[in-house]
């Protein structure tokens, strides 16, 4: 970037003109007075005219002072020019990365688009959003977040072609404009793949490491976007932004080209986000309960609380839809706390031997005040801590084991039980299981559902049961769907179980017959036929709005 400011002189012309005039006058007077001085020195004349001599001397003084002033003015002008150039750079660039900012990127991209159209070429705009950047920033502080952004910027700069425009247009969002030949769009795809690989490489942040990925959206002047007028930079940036969110919702660490239907999907998702935010304080999210049974005695042990959204506009919305969205928009903690508050009030009326199990989002485990918030809810409801069990998924153990251990220890000290949920789907080590204070271990439904038909699944379940026995961790099997699965599980010894075989989840007002039957005299057996497979209410199915990485059964 040049330091020259358009319309600004780089030298002081007036001062230069005065000095030049003084030099010319000096030359003229010197040519007149010079011969007289020479003859006077030789004794041939009385000397130069006094008036002309004074003018000559004055002219010398003007040259000396004028030149000095000329240099001072030019030095001052150079400083001011550099300051104005620096101010312009600050106004046009991001101070952290040195990239363009949103405003200057739009202007630069518009120029690139205009030139590309004249030459028959095309311009592609990329939008990159860093996945999980907020968590890294929250865990390690803003200084570490800035360091991470600078490393990402350096990696982007390494692979983007010379002549492209690069900008940081948001906290962790980058935009790139690239000119290319329309017949070579495959080159843009390959560049997108390279960028994602670059960003996915482990980065060093302070004294630790950080693993992040990127979601990338693409839009191009060479593609049809249902627009009557040719797309400018602002429009293409909006298209690329929509495509980027599509890539993020499809599992992250991927890229997508903009397609017109994506805008409709984004509109629907935005509408759902707004409804979720308004639905939480309105009490539209309600707890449902799934029975947990002792498979040996047939007795009811407790209930697991599951989330349901009874929307006045959409009906009963599938948790596979609203839970990932609530996590993305940062509403999962508030949603979970409201559901737990309701569940604790419901459970107060149950027999004292029945426990309440609730699922905790990975995002809540990152909250250093979560234990205090949960204890506050227990105090408000006067619910005994020893009857509450929280469930955390195995994937949570790989994010910050030290923080998880501290949190679980704090909860255990208050009498709350802790269960490891979905065991078998992650990569927990025996050392982690021994070091963390778990009370129970739940085998993931993906194994339980196939235990009667898949020998490998049956072997895995038996192995987990034996490991639980060795670690003194009682086992709960989730996803029991039929009597054949039930009979296989009974062979494993003392095991608790839950699933639709024992009835679909119900709201609190419909638990009366379950509780009455479940507290029958000891020695009863589990029914040989499914108990109360209720018809599920109408459920909204919006597959396109759901993240592929977040398939749950309504657990919060």
From TrEMBL:
<dbReference type="Pfam" id="PF00990">
    <property type="entry name" value="GGDEF"/>
</dbReference>
<dbReference type="InterPro" id="IPR035919">
    <property type="entry name" value="EAL_sf"/>
</dbReference>
<dbReference type="InterPro" id="IPR029787">
    <property type="entry name" value="Nucleotide_cyclase"/>
</dbReference>
<dbReference type="Pfam" id="PF00563">
    <property type="entry name" value="EAL"/>
</dbReference>
<keyword id="KW-0472">Membrane</keyword>
<keyword id="KW-1133">Transmembrane helix</keyword>
<feature type="region of interest" description="Disordered">
    <location>
        <begin position="521"/>
        <end position="556"/>
    </location>
</feature>
<protein>
    <submittedName>
        <fullName>EAL domain-containing protein</fullName>
    </submittedName>
</protein>
<dbReference type="InterPro" id="IPR043128">
    <property type="entry name" value="Rev_trsase/Diguanyl_cyclase"/>
</dbReference>
<keyword id="KW-0812">Transmembrane</keyword>
<dbReference type="InterPro" id="IPR000160">
    <property type="entry name" value="GGDEF_dom"/>
</dbReference>
<feature type="transmembrane region" description="Helical">
    <location>
        <begin position="51"/>
        <end position="70"/>
    </location>
</feature>
<dbReference type="InterPro" id="IPR052155">
    <property type="entry name" value="Biofilm_reg_signaling"/>
</dbReference>
<feature type="domain" description="EAL">
    <location>
        <begin position="269"/>
        <end position="519"/>
    </location>
</feature>
<feature type="domain" description="GGDEF">
    <location>
        <begin position="121"/>
        <end position="260"/>
    </location>
</feature>
<feature type="transmembrane region" description="Helical">
    <location>
        <begin position="12"/>
        <end position="31"/>
    </location>
</feature>
<dbReference type="InterPro" id="IPR001633">
    <property type="entry name" value="EAL_dom"/>
</dbReference>
